[in-house]
């Protein structure tokens, strides 16, 4: 009996060793295959629709089917399409040199991610001024969350190679309090750590997914090669309400605003670099200041005091607006000093929740209003500078 028990015990150990050995072998093969596949996909990936230059990664030929519950003033079902350049809008014309080519660069207020195709303000601007400039081509190169740090990378790695005639920069909001590239700026960059302020394991997962061709391919296949369905709920929307207020003492307001000043010289340098890069490459830069719903006055829709409205636990509408205006003032001053065409959208855009679904993002009506303001400026400007001057040569 003792001998039989020893034999059974020996057999059990052998079985465990065999399972462990085979498990390690399978793991080894999986790692080797993953590494080889990663290398091959980095050389050539026929499925993953991303443009990869030195740093920037752009989705190309991508369609998003958006379902938005609880977000007012936008279509509940919307289609958001990226073309072969990774931007919103028509494909580039074959006779590129015969068109007035314009790109719009900015963050989420330029991309208008939750607005369907043709309802984002760059698309509607193009429609408005097309009669004045028949050969106009406009693409929306806005990227959610990008600041001037990300704009410069996009410009250096990709846009200057396209060599459009004009680039419009709607800037400011994502630069407030920022002194380095991080967060959303890194979500379109390879070989960077993506930190969106979540738990470390979530940030690590985003970083791996962003930089791995294998993971990207798996996600692509699981979601559908060309179409990605995204569902959003009312947590992305926060309506202004007369009772939701925050009082800030004048002395505290001044202390908070004083903390902004050290960031402004570096912001000016970044904007100046955008302007200089464009001009060195024969591209005309045009600057647009960033508007907000909050800041002053009363919302004509909800009758909310937009200065006292509580933006967050430490900031009301007045403070948020004055912080942003510090950056807008830098943009205005630089435009004047460097003779850059400026559209002061921050001062021209009406403060009404008809036009904003939160404190900064545009509803469909808001995108229409932005396109109206921008078109009234650029229509005559483009017609005189580019169309008339070319046709009279």
UniProtKB/TrEMBL annotation:
Transmembrane segments annotated in the record for this chain: 25-44
InterPro entries found in the cross-reference section: Ester_Hydrolysis_Enzymes, SGNH_hydro, SGNH_hydro_sf
Gene Ontology molecular function, alphabetical: hydrolase activity, acting on ester bonds
SGNH hydrolase-type esterase domain sequence ranges: 105-367
Presence of the UniProt keyword RNA-binding in the record: no
The keyword Membrane belongs to this UniProt entry's keyword annotation: yes
Gene3D superfamilies according to UniProt: SGNH hydrolase
Keywords: Hydrolase, Membrane, Transmembrane, Transmembrane helix
Protein name: SGNH/GDSL hydrolase family protein
UniProt organism field: Spirosoma profusum
């Amino acid at each position: 009996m003792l001998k039989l028990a020893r034999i059974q015990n020996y057999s059990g150990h052998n079985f465990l060793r065999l399972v462990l050995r085979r498990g390690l072998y399978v793991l080894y093969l999986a790692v080797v295959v993953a590494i080889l596949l990663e290398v091959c996909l980095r050389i050539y990936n026929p499925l993953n629709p991303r443009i990869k230059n030195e740093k920037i990664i752009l989705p190309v030929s991508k369609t998003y089917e958006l379902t938005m519950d609880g977000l007012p003033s936008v279509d509940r079902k919307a289609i958001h399409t990226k073309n072969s350049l990774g931007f919103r809008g028509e494909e580039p014309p074959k006779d590129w040199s015969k068109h007035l080519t314009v790109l719009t660069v900015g963050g989420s207020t330029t991309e208008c991610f939750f607005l369907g195709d043709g309802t984002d303000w760059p698309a509607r601007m193009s429609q408005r001024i097309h009669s004045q400039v028949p050969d106009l081509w406009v693409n929306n190169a806005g990227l959610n969350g990008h600041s001037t740090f990300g704009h410069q990378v996009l410009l250096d790695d990709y846009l200057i190679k396209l060599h459009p005639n004009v680039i419009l920069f709607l800037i400011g909001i994502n630069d407030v309090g920022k002194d380095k590239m991080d967060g959303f700026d890194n979500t379109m960059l390879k070989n960077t750590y993506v930190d969106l302020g979540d738990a470390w394991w979530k940030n690590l997962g985003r970083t791996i997914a962003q930089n791995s061709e294998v993971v990207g391919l798996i996600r692509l296949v699981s979601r559908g090669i060309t179409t990605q369905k995204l569902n959003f709920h009312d947590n992305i929307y926060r309506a202004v309400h007369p009772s939701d207020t925050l009082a800030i003492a004048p002395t505290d307001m001044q202390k908070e605003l004083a903390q902004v000043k050290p960031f402004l010289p570096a912001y000016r340098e970044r904007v100046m670099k955008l302007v200089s890069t464009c001009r060195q490459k024969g591209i005309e830069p045009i600057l647009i200041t960033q508007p907000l719903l909050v800041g002053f006055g009363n919302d004509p829709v909800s009758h909310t005091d937009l200065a006292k409205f509580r933006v967050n636990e430490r900031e009301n509408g007045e403070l948020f607006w004055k912080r942003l205006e510090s950056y807008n003032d830098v943009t205005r001053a630089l435009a004047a000093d460097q003779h850059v065409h400026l559209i002061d959208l921050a001062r021209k855009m009406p403060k009404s929740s008809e036009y904003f679904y939160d404190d900064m993002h545009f509803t469909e009506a808001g995108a229409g209003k932005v396109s109206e303001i921008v078109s009234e400026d650029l229509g005559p400007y483009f017609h005189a500078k580019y169309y008339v001057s070319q046709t009279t040569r």
